[in-house]
Amino acid sequence: QVQLVESGGGLVQAGGSLRLSCAASGRTFSDYNMAWFRRPPGKEREFVAAISRSGGYTLYADSVKGRFTISRDNANNTVYLQMNSLKPGDTAAYYCAGRSGPITTTPGLYDYWGQGTQVTVSS
């Protein structure tokens, strides 16, 4: 089992920045590809970004490309999501997820999930 705990959400004005963290415990963190998803109000969960086990490969949704950066620190069992130039449309509950299989944008294929952290962007 892998336990994931997100933090760093909050209320920010449009154009601002936030950094989300996801701390992992349980099994060897570097064995897992990690991702961030989000669920906007009234919408389905959607892919945001993913990072490979070593951190050498990243993948982003078109909607966040150039504004968000995913990174990981395997020594400290943490994955991050740096969010810049935030827009009201980024308002959502953000979740980190992990899987031992290949990176995918399909949320149902991830094995482990955190409880989520709320990000609200005001206009």
Describe this protein with a few key phrases.
four-stranded antiparallel sheet, globular, 123 residues, 0% helix
Topology (elements, then pairings):
Elements: E1 3-7, E2 10-13, E3 18-25, E4 33-39, E5 46-51, E6 58-60, E7 68-73, E8 78-83, E9 92-99, E10 112-113, E11 117-122
> Strand pairing plus helix content: what structural class?
mainly beta
Fraction of residues in β-strands: over 45%
Radius of gyration: 13 Å
- Helical content stands at under 10%
Q: In DSSP terms, counting alpha (H) and pi (I) runs of 4 or more, how many helices?
A: 0
Instruction: Tell me the major beta sheet.
Output: 7 strands, mixed
The poorly predicted ranges are none
How many beta-strand runs? 11
Q: What is the molecular shape?
A: globular
Give the distance, in angstroms, between the N- and C-terminal Cα atoms: 40 Å
Q: What's the mean pLDDT score?
A: 97
Quick rundown:
The chain is mainly beta and 123 residues long. Helix content is 0%, strand content 50%. The protein contains no helices and eleven strands.
What does this structure look like?
- By secondary structure, the protein is mainly beta.
- It has no helices and 11 strands.
- The chain has strands at residues 3-7, 10-13, 18-25, 33-39, 46-51, 58-60, 68-73, 78-83, 92-99, 112-113, 117-122.
- Strands 2, 4, 5, 6, 9, 10 and 11 form a 7-stranded mixed β-sheet that branches. It has a 4-stranded antiparallel β-sheet with strand order 1-3-8-7, with no helix packed on it.
- A hairpin with a 6-residue loop joins strand 5 (46-51) and strand 6 (58-60).
